[in-house]
Amino acid sequence: MHHALILSLLASTALAGPRRPHSHAVATGEIKCPIVFDGRVKTTTELTDFDSYGTSIFNPDYVKGNDIKWSQIIKFPAVNGSRFDDAETHKPFEVTISDQSIFQQQRGFRRAGLQFQGDTNSGSPGSSGIKTIHFSLKWDAQRALNLSHEYLNVWHEAGDYSANQFNFEAGSILGQSSLARDTWKVLDRKNKQIWSTPILKNEWQNFAVTLNFQRNTLQVYYSKGAEPLKSVTSAVSNDNSGQGQYQIGILKKPTGTSDVVNSGYQQKNLNEGLIYGGLFLEDSANNCISL
Ligand SMILES: *[C@@H]1O[C@H](CO)[C@@H](O)[C@H](O)[C@H]1NC(C)=O
Ligand SMILES: *[C@@H]1O[C@H](CO)[C@@H](O)[C@H](O)[C@H]1NC(C)=O
């Protein structure tokens, strides 16, 4: 760093006097382990930055409606950041779905799913070792999800697209009507629920899922608001093989069909969204995890 710059930084710190600890909403969670993919959006990011490789931290081309761009899908809601956002550096973002959220020929789904740039379908660092995906969610009452439907929000899909190693979901899980609708749920590769918690409408909920690709386990962590994450499951046995990619956003399944990809009922004039913050993939080698 330039000498003059250091001096001026020191000077401005000194002149500013003692900082009030809570003068603005700062992150309370410290990230302790190396970040593999950082999905936290910078305060300087503009919506159109999501439309090209040079400016987006995500894949600008996938997985979204054929005729719309990410700049039409993502919104910047006026909410404070979550536990792992730094208010000076990061801002929350909202992923939305509309009638235009039809990917390729998949007319049954409405979907908008972000992939980290660099998370390749084969050989990604996200699919080996021990990795923890962190994300915080906030409900948007103006664009509420319809919990009569099944939603996938965060998952890891195998490279051959034959299965998801885990699904983080909301709403009514098709074929599993005994599960409550108004919960966030983690399902294993066999679509068996391993944990759930009620959806809160007024505060951030923070989640982390550790995928141990060496021992084939899943472990879930959770907290609300600014509280530290706590382990809410043990490391449960799960088949994490098959590599693939993470996806983060909304995939809304239809109702009234056995062919969810291609047919079924979706309401018209759809306007739904979910607010994300504190999104990153952490290297949990040696069981490192940020709480
Ligand atoms: C954000 O945090 C600040 C400081 O804690 C608070 O005054 C403000 O009301 C919050 N804004 C929202 C939209 O929650
Ligand atoms: C929610 O979804 C159900 C099932 O598709 C539908 O019958 C209902 O009209 C939807 N509610 C709203 C508010 O759109």
UniProtKB/TrEMBL annotation:
<protein>
    <recommendedName>
        <fullName>Glycoside hydrolase 131 catalytic N-terminal domain-containing protein</fullName>
    </recommendedName>
</protein>
<feature type="signal peptide">
    <location>
        <begin position="1"/>
        <end position="16"/>
    </location>
</feature>
<feature type="domain" description="Glycoside hydrolase 131 catalytic N-terminal">
    <location>
        <begin position="35"/>
        <end position="285"/>
    </location>
</feature>
<dbReference type="Pfam" id="PF18271">
    <property type="entry name" value="GH131_N"/>
</dbReference>
<dbReference type="InterPro" id="IPR041524">
    <property type="entry name" value="GH131_N"/>
</dbReference>
<keyword id="KW-0732">Signal</keyword>
